[in-house]
Amino acid sequence: MIFFKRSFLSLFLTQFSGALNDNLFKNALLVLITFHASQWSTVAPETLSAIAGGVFILPFLLFSSLAGQLADKYDKAFLAKLTKWFELAVVAVVFVGFYIHSLTILLFALFLFGVQSAFFGPIKYAILPQYLRSDELVSANAWVESGTFVAVLLGTMIGALLAGVSGASNWIVFSCALVALLGWGAAQALPSVAAPAPSLKLSFNPWLQTLESLKIARAQNVVYWSVLSISWFWLYGLLVLSQFPVVAQKKLGGDETSVALLLMFFTVGIGFGSWVCERWVNRQDNLKGSSASLNVNRKTDETFEIKNLDVALKRRVQLHRISTFGGFGLALAGGFFSLWLWLHSAESMQGQTLSISVLIKQPQAVFLIFILCSMGFFGGIYTVPLYTLMQSESQSQTRARVIAANNVLNAAFMLGGALVSSVLLWAGFGLSAVFLIAGVAQLFFSLWFGRKKMNQ
Q1: Cβ atoms of residues 214 and 408 within 8 Å
Q2: Which of the residues 147, 183, 317, 412 could staple to 17 if both were Cys, CB 3.0 to 4.6 A apart?
Q3: Which alpha helices (DSSP H) does 100-243 contain, by range?
Q4: CA atoms of 343 and 336, how far apart (whole Å)
Q5: CB-count exposure of residue 191 (10 Å: 0-12, 13-18, 19+)
Q6: Structure confidence at residue 187 (pLDDT)
Q7: Is residue 60 a contact partner of residue 114, using CB atoms and an 8 Å limit?
Q8: What's the whole-number mean pLDDT along residues 92-112?
């Protein structure tokens, strides 16, 4: 089982702790500015939520190109350890922000957490093909995707709970510091790997290097469409996740802990969808005997080169079809989410604050939980094949830069989504209208992606 391989387990725990810390702090801040908005700012909570989401993903747009170059040029395990040192420094900024009660400094700390994630992202995905065989990548990505959303869940639960207790700022700082230390410890066990492009000349111009990385991705048709599809998912996902506190408070009438309840069921759906995707692919491989045909060419600099091109094409088409199915399911579930938001007006919940034990018994909450589980389920089926295609089809010498290009597009899509949703909400559109627009767009994107040929 790949999970218990030292290399993968160390990487999993390192990325798990990073995602946990990001979301612990981010969601604690979101809950504070949603449920205690008057203590921090006069800006509407919905707008602040969108701004916080944009602040976190902006570093991916600014620094991903450099991060990809560094991950191709140097030992990725060494770089991963450096990012964990940086995370410890960010916790100190969080402490200062809470100590002087400054929302500006706390948003800056959120930005720095985004910087750390931007530099770790290319490492995390580009190192997997160096640690594992190509036929293990689907399972690895299923673990990573499930683990990431479990970390998101735990971070949201812990952040939401800590935001509601007495002395919240002290507990938030202590928890962030503890998680950062645990992640630092896990990173020390990462085995070193060879640098695929040690002679690469670094470019510090983010715009020019971003264009170069996108050009590299564009030269590989399968990789390019995988990158675009992943970016679209994160636009859609950020839109959903960033509004969970608002939905919990204004649509359900819940307290701070109800945010974690919603995310818990969304995460259960992601984990189940990832597992179903892994079983689906492995079952097809066993039936066709394709796993046995995936060989490693140790004589070249390609880490895991697939010799049997016919098998490679079949696997590529299979992963594309599975992802397309997930995309259509995600669009359908998103449509039901929009309908639910429209049917449950904010005014109907004014003056009510329901605990989780009471909330879970409400019919409207049960239906919402089913919808969120469905969205997570189809999201897992949609993304796992895409990450696998991006890793297995890219060249080892440029893989980290391709992943960096993916992160840049992720950031651009998510930032665009945050800006558009903020403008729509500011202009008077309700949440149901915003999600209806997003759901229709997801449907059209799925149709478009499904028509793309994955045999080039």
Answers
A1: yes
A2: 183
A3: 103-131, 137-163, 168-187, 206-218, 221-242
A4: 10
A5: middle
A6: 94
A7: yes
A8: 91
Instruction: Say whether pLDDT at 293 is over 60.
Output: no
Residue with tokens 């604050």: 353
Compute the CA torsion angle 280, 327, 135, 270 (nearest 10 deg): -70
- Burial letters 244-260, b for 16+ CB under 10 A, else e: bbbbbbbbbbbbbbbbb
At 5, the amino acid letter reads K
- pLDDT per residue as tens digits for the range 132-190: 887 788 888 888 888 887 887 788 778 878 887 888 889 999 999 999 999 999 999 99
Whether the CB-CB separation of 394 and 220 falls below 8 Å is answered with: yes
Measured distance CA(88)–CA(75) in Å, rounded: 21
Helix (H) or strand (E) holding 347: none
**Among residues 340, 348, 413, which one has the least CA distance to residue 54?**
413
Task: Spell out the residues 6+ positions from residue 121 whose beta carbon is closer than 8 angstroms to its own.
Answer: 60, 64, 67, 403, 404, 407
CA distance 72 to 145: 23
CA 73 to chain centre: 25
* Phi (first) and psi of residue 254, to 5 degrees: -90, 170
- Among the listed residues 26, 10, 21, the one whose alpha carbon sits nearest the alpha carbon of residue 245: 26
Residue 3 CA to residue 277 CA, distance in Å, equals 17
What's the CATH class of domain 9-188+220-294+303-450? Answer: mainly alpha
Nearest-angstrom CA–CA distance, 8 and 22: 21
Per-residue pLDDT reduced to its tens digit, 379-412: 989 988 888 888 888 888 888 888 888 888 887 8
Q: What is the pTM (predicted TM-score) of this model?
A: 0.76
pLDDT tens by residue, 78-92: 999 999 999 999 999
